[in-house]
Amino acid sequence: MKLSIVIPCYNEAENIRDFHEEIEKIIKDLKIETELIFVNDGSKDQTLLMLKELSNENSSVSYVSFSRNFGKEAAMLAGLEYATGDAIVIMDADLQHPPHLIPSLVEKYDDGYDQVVAKRTRRGETKSRTLVSKLYYKLMNHFIEVDLVDGVGDFRLLSRKALNALLSLKEYNRFSKGLFSWIGFKEYVIEYENVVREAGQSKWTFSKLLNYGIDGILSFNNKPLRISIYIGMGITILSTIYILVMLFQTIFYGINVPGYFTTISAVLVLGGIQLVFLGVIGEYIGRIYYEAKNRPIYIVDEENIHQRNEISKKY
Ligand code: UDP
Ligand code: MG
């Protein structure tokens, strides 16, 4: 069998050498043919230079370099499209995904599992982030039909079968955590302790995380739209009843003291709710707009690919 390892890299110059050394050690012991596919996601540091050196020195190291930063989802997709292995591992370049787990992942693949997932047991993050992510997963699993598990990230092994299924999902707005779950197949979960980042900075700012979270909820189904319809219907029924009661009162008892308070509050509440759901609808239309444009998910600037498959095009 052949193993492909896909590594998205954004400003990881400080980590790449260490990462490669660690991986090499593991691969030697594994004794199976392995290719490493690094994807340079428009880094602003020396990442590309390091990758060039590495791939010139090692025939097992290939790289793809984007014309700008397209985001981790795009970088993963590119790596997966270029991968030629029978099994594919996706992992981060910052050594937060411990390479020593790779043999266990491969072992489970040999046992016949199509997705072998590595799950973090302790997040080792700030308390507030842990709380927010717990809440988020609760909400998500309630909202969408796919099952997402806290602590399960992109670190996993896919069989060729699972990978081909994943690549057949062509959407522009990719939310991998959901896609992995959506394709299904026999899955096995391995747990590991959280590790702190080796060098450099995490690229997740609060706003990036928030956007990612909203992507997750909206990219899977139209439940938010459905909920807006329910709330809208409820409010319409209530206000119709209220208007009828008012009409009845006016006709039979004459005009009351002008209800300034009720008027204003109705306008405000309705206005607020309308804005929220207008936003939800706008989000969906925006997504349709992006999908309809059918742009490529990433643009390759340069590459050094030692072994090519039919999917990866030459740029
Ligand atoms: N990454 C990427 N493009 C981006 C942001 C991140 O390819 O726009 C890569 C990054 O180089 C790393 C992985 O995705 O290999 C995870 O990023 P990071 O460590 O910042 O995320 P965290 O571990 O904090 O969730
Ligand atoms: Mg990290």
Automatic annotation (TrEMBL):
InterPro entries: Glyco_trans_2-like, Glycosyltransferase_2, Nucleotide-diphossugar_trans. The keyword Transmembrane applies. One of its GO terms (molecular function) is transferase activity. SUPFAM superfamilies: Nucleotide-diphospho-sugar transferases. Keywords: Membrane, Transferase, Transmembrane, Transmembrane helix. The chain crosses the membrane at residues 227-248, 260-285. The keyword Cytoplasm does not apply. GO terms for cellular component: plasma membrane. Gene3D superfamilies: Spore Coat Polysaccharide Biosynthesis Protein SpsA, Chain A. Residues 4-166 form the Glycosyltransferase 2-like domain. This is Glycosyltransferase family 2 protein. It comes from Robertmurraya kyonggiensis.
